[in-house]
Amino acid sequence: MTARPGEQDHVRPKKMADLVADRIRQQIVRGQLNEGDWLPTEPELMERFGVSRPTLREAFRLLEADSLVRVRRGPPGGARVSIPGPEAAAPIFGLLLTLSGTTLSDVYDARTVIEPPAARILAESGSDADHDAIEAEADRVAAAFAASAPFGPVTVRFHQRLVELAGNRTLTTVIVMLGEIMSRHVAIAYNESPSSMADIEERHERALRSYRRLVALVRNRDGEAAERHWAEHMRAARVHLLQNAETAQRQVIDLLG
């Protein structure tokens, strides 16, 4: 809004608590404060910033809301740095997908865009340690299958680790934020499946063989074949996870609501 002649535009200054929180936030972002570090005591911080105890505690509340510190109340109290992972943003991300009417088909399409190229990058550019890590994830899937443990969570983790090990932090953040949606979707898909237990076990065996095949291609550093195989895997999985048009058009709100 433009001020009339003789008037001034007034910008509300930041509250002191906001400024203190900004200073501490910058120290965390710049690596001057690391995961697990304790902030100085309240008296020290009050003296350093020239603020009262209520102002300092309001700053702590702001940092807690950002998942940047955890405050331990009562003697001996204090604030400890806690670096959030992508999971911290997952609730608001899920809310945005819910508000926009996003369908499960749309979520799966996004994963199909992200994961096969990630398989190629992991094969071609990943270190031996990265390749060991993705094989370890396949071993976890095998162990869950052998123990008749829930299959969905370990498969979701395999997909997440595939993208994470490819090394792109932005895509890793996206795929981890989709983790809760993916987990709930897989669980519901299995619960609603008309397949017999024998059919489900056979499906799990095929999935495990597919994971092992991907690991072999990654270890051989055959990026083209790894990308092609994982695209085929996801197309086959789609048939079971999005069994019909009604399921495909189910919205995220039906999972998170």
Layout of secondary structure:
Blueprint: H1 16-29, H2 42-49, H3 53-65, E1 69-72, E2 78-81, H4 90-99, H5 104-125, H6 128-146, H7 151-166, H8 169-177, H9 179-192, H10 197-219, H11 223-241, H12 245-248, H13 253-256
Antiparallel strand pairs: 1-2
Helix pairs in contact: 1-3, 5-7, 5-10, 5-11, 6-7, 6-10, 7-8, 7-9, 10-11
Q: How many runs of DSSP E, i.e. beta strands?
A: 2
Main sheet: strands, sense, barrel: 2 strands, antiparallel
Shape annotation:
elongated
**Order of strands in the sheet with the most strands?**
1-2
Strand content: under 5%
| Helix coverage percent | 55-70%
**SSE sequence, one letter per element:** HHHEEHHHHHHHHHH
Radius of gyration, CA atoms, in whole angstroms: 24 Å
Extract low-pLDDT stretches: none
Number of helices: 13
Oligomeric state of this protein: single chain
Secondary-structure content class? mainly alpha
The span between the termini is 39 Å
Give the overall average pLDDT.
86
What does this structure look like?
- The longest helix has 23 residues, at 197-219.
- This protein has 13 helices and 2 strands.
- It is elongated.
- A hairpin with a 5-residue loop joins strand 1 and strand 2 (78-81).
- A two-stranded antiparallel ribbon has the order 1-2.
- It has helices at residues 16-29, 42-49, 53-65, 90-99, 104-125, 128-146, 151-166, 169-177, 179-192, 197-219, 223-241, 245-248, 253-256, and strands spanning 69-72, 78-81.
- The chain is mostly helical.
- Helices cover 68% and strands 3% of the residues.
